Amino acid sequence: MVNRVVLFVIDSVGIGALPDAEEFGDVGANTLGNIIKAEGGIHLPNLISLGLGNIDGIIGIDPIESPLGAYGRSDEVSQGKDTTTGHWELAGLHLTKPFKTFPDGFPESVIQAFEEKIGKKILGNKAASGTAIIEELGEEHLKTGYPIVYTSADSVFQIAAHEEVIPIEELYKMCRIAREIMMGDHAVARIIARPFVGTLGSFNRTSNRRDFSLNPPGETVLDIAKREGFDVIAVGKIEDIFNGQGITEAVHTEDNMDGIDQTINYLNKENKGIIFTNLVDFDSKYGHRRDAKGYKQALEDMDQRIPELLKSLKKDDMIMIVADHGNDPTFKGTDHTREYIPILIYGEAVKPNVNIGTRKSFADIAATIADILGIPSTGKGDSFKSLMM
Ligand SMILES: O=P(O)(O)O[C@H]1O[C@H](CO)[C@@H](O)[C@H]1O
Ligand SMILES: [Mn+2]
Ligand SMILES: [Mn+2]
Fold this sequence. Notes:
The protein folds into two domains: 4-95 and 217-388, Alkaline Phosphatase, subunit A (3-Layer(aba) Sandwich), CATH 3.40.720.10; 108-212, Alpha-Beta Plaits, CATH 3.30.70.1250. The protein is α/β, with parallel strands linked by helices. It has 13 helices and 14 strands. It is 33% helix and 21% strand. The protein starts with a strand and ends with a helix. It has helices at residues 31-39, 45-50, 83-90, 108-118, 130-144, 168-181, 221-227, 238-241, 256-267, 281-287, 292-311, 363-373, 385-388, and strands spanning 4-10, 70-74, 123-127, 148-151, 156-162, 190-199, 202-205, 210-213, 231-235, 249-251, 273-279, 317-322, 341-347, 354-359. An eight-stranded mixed beta sheet has the order 10-9-11-1-12-13-2-14, sandwiched between helices. The longest helix has 20 residues, at 292-311. 1-O-phosphono-alpha-D-ribofuranose (R1P) binds at residues 83, 129-130, 152, 154, 156, 158, 192, 194, 284, 288. It is an enzyme of class 5 (isomerase). It catalyses: alpha-D-ribose 1-phosphate = D-ribose 5-phosphate; 2-deoxy-alpha-D-ribose 1-phosphate = 2-deoxy-D-ribose 5-phosphate. GO terms for molecular function: magnesium ion binding; manganese ion binding; phosphopentomutase activity. Pathway: Carbohydrate degradation; 2-deoxy-D-ribose 1-phosphate degradation; D-glyceraldehyde 3-phosphate and acetaldehyde from 2-deoxy-alpha-D-ribose 1-phosphate: step 1/2. This is Phosphopentomutase.
C-alpha cells in the first residue's frame, strides 16, 4: 500500500532526442549523453544503482546487473519543450496547441499597454539570454529605473530589475499587470520576475525569481488528489507552474540543495499524497548557460544526496525521479531541447530491476500516481503500476 509519492523533477535532464526532434530543430540533442561525452565521464553511483544505465537507449552509462529500482523513459505528446508543458503533461494534461512565442519581441500594443499601467517606459523587448541582457542594459536600467523586458524561444514575458532599483514586491506587481495583459490572443505561458543584485559587470540573479503561469487548461492529477483529501505539497517552482491549482502546501527554494532539504523535511512530516519537487538549477544555471562542466558537477552533487533522500522514505512511500524536457549544454543556441525524459522509481513496494520501457507520454506518470493512490486519473496516459508493483 503506497500512500505517498514523491515526484522529483530534475529540471531539463533529457536523455536523447525524441523521434520528432527535427520539428524542434533538436536532432542530435542529448543532455545527459552529451555532457558525459564532453566531460569525459560522470560519477552518478546512486542514480546508476537505481537503474539509470539500464534505461533503453541511454548513452554513456553502462547497465548494471541488479538495479534497485524500476526504470524507463518517456516520450512527450504535447507540442512543446518548455517547463510548463512538461510539468502539465507529467500531471496528466496534453497540450495540443503550442504556447505562443514572440521571437521578435512583443507587439507595440502590448508594450504600450504595459508601460501605461506601470507608469514607466521599458528597456529591451527582444529575445535574449537573461544573464546577457542584464549586462547589456543594466547601466541604462540603473540610470532610468526602467524595467528590462525580454523573452526567449519559450513562451515567456520576463521582467528583469535590480532589487535596489525596483523592489521585489513592485516587480511582482508589474508581473501581475503583465499577466493580465498577456491573456487571450497574447497569452504567454509564463510571466517571470527576474530580479538581480550587484554592480555592472558582476550582476547576479537572485532566488526571488517568480513565475506567474496560466492556469492549467484542465484538471490535473494534483487537483484530483487534493479533492480526494490528499496532501499535494509543492517544492520549488511547482506552485508557480500550476498557478497554485491543486496544491495544498508549498515552499519555494533557494537552490537545488535547498530543494532536496525541503523534500526530506516534508518526508519527515506526517502527510500523504504527493510531494512534487522541481530542482531548477540544472536548467537555469547550467543548461541555458551552455555550461556542461557546471551541469555535470550539479548532477554529481545531487547524486550524493540520493542515499539521504531514499533513507527518508517510509515503507508506504515511493519516489519517481523524472525530468520535464532537455537542455543540452553542448547544443547550439541556449534553449531547451526536445528529448526523452528518464524515469527511475524506487520504494519498498516497487519491484527492483523492472524495465517499464519507453512510455508514450509523460502523462503515464500521472496515470500511475492516480492508480497507486486509488483516485481517478485525468483520462490521459496509461498506468504502468502493474508492471512494477
Ligand atoms: O536566459 P534566462 O533568463 O535564464 O531564460 C531562461 O529561463 C526562462 C524560463 O525557464 C526561459 O525562457 C529561458 O530562456
Ligand atoms: Mn524546466
Ligand atoms: Mn528553462
